Structures are given as C-alpha cells and as structure tokens.
Amino acid sequence: VVTDMVFADHVTDHRALEQILYAMEGQSEHPLAEAVVSFLKNRKVNPVEILNFNSITGKGVRAEALDGTQYLVGNHKLMVEKGIAMDDNLGHMVEGLEQEAKTVIYFGGGGKVKAILAIMDSIKESSKEAIREMQGNGMEVYMMTGDNKMTAEAVSQQVGIKSYEAEVLPSEKADFVKRLQESGKVVAMVGDGINDSQALAQADV
C-alpha cells in the first residue's frame, strides 16, 4: 500500500506527472507497481500515452513522454546510476520513511527526482509464526530483498529473521542460493514476481 507521495519543491505540474507515472507503472510487471497504480487510480488519475517503455531488471523502468522528456521510476540505485539529482528536503524525508520500514520508490525526469512514493507491506502474523516454527525445527531463515538496508533491517526485526541481504539484484539472489548450496545446505526459496525467478530456479525447493 502506498502511504506517502511527496513532490520535490521545484515541481508544480503534479497532475501531469501523476499521469506519466501511472502510464509507466501500469506497464511494469513489478509487484510494487500494482500498489502505485492502485494509489493513483484512487486519486482519479488517468494515464497518458508514453513512448519507448523499457524495464531495467532489478532497478525499475524507463519511458519517454510525448514531449521527449525521459522519465525513470525505480530504486535509489537507478537514480544514482543515471545521474538523477535529488533535493535535500526529499533526501531527509527518505531517511525517515526508510526507518519506518517503508520502501521508497523514486520518480525522476529531466535529470531530477520529481517525487518519491513510500510503500508499506503489512506483515501477516502467520508469517512471524511460520518463521518461528521453521527456526524451532532447526532451519536457517534468510531474507533477500532489493530494498534498502534500513527497511530490510526493520522488517527482519519485526518478523524475527536474524540474517538478511539488502539491495540485491535478481542474479545476486540466485548467487546467494548457490553459495548456501555449495556449503552443503538444501535450500527452499519463496518469492514473488519475475525478479525472483532465477533464485527460485536455482533452489532445491
């Protein structure tokens, strides 16, 4: 669920940007994109036409508006890689959101971060129970996520997971599974979405 959407101070055309964001996330296959689409739909936003949509595995998506402006939606790693600058106010806000165990998505265009969105997963009580039961049976439980370290740490503490890997790409998830297997462990993997397919294929179960 999207809990927050904050535009940068220099942004005035909020509605137009929301329409572009909707169009981009509507074409994305990432599970978090569904939360963004649902949020914008509830705000009565209508998507606009975009060009040259492209998915960047493990990082986000890219597209072009009809006026030729390039837009990106994704994680912090993508913004840094593409040289997208963020103002200090948004930067401070990101820190606070991540400490609340929220996932922050960045929306950039024209070389600047236009907005950030915070997404929070509600953790099911049954998840905590399942982890406790597995650990009680002598299993080691690991969490792997493309999310930032602060959010991963907060979530792992909430569910009782002692070991986690943050900011990992899909291929790195598969490598981690392989390392566990090479150390003599039988690995069962649970995942959702295309980003986990390599690790799921690598796992024993």
From TrEMBL:
UniProt keywords, alphabetically: Membrane, Translocase, Transmembrane, Transmembrane helix
Keyword Transmembrane helix: yes
Compartments where located: Membrane
GO cellular component: membrane
Origin superkingdom: Bacteria
InterPro entries in the record: ATPase_P-typ_cyto_dom_N, HAD-like_sf, HAD_sf, P_typ_ATPase
GO biological process, one term: copper ion homeostasis
Pfam families for this protein: Hydrolase (PF00702)
Listed GO MF terms: ATP binding; ATP hydrolysis activity; copper ion binding; P-type divalent copper transporter activity
Membrane-spanning intervals of the chain: none
Descriptive protein name: HAD-IC family P-type ATPase
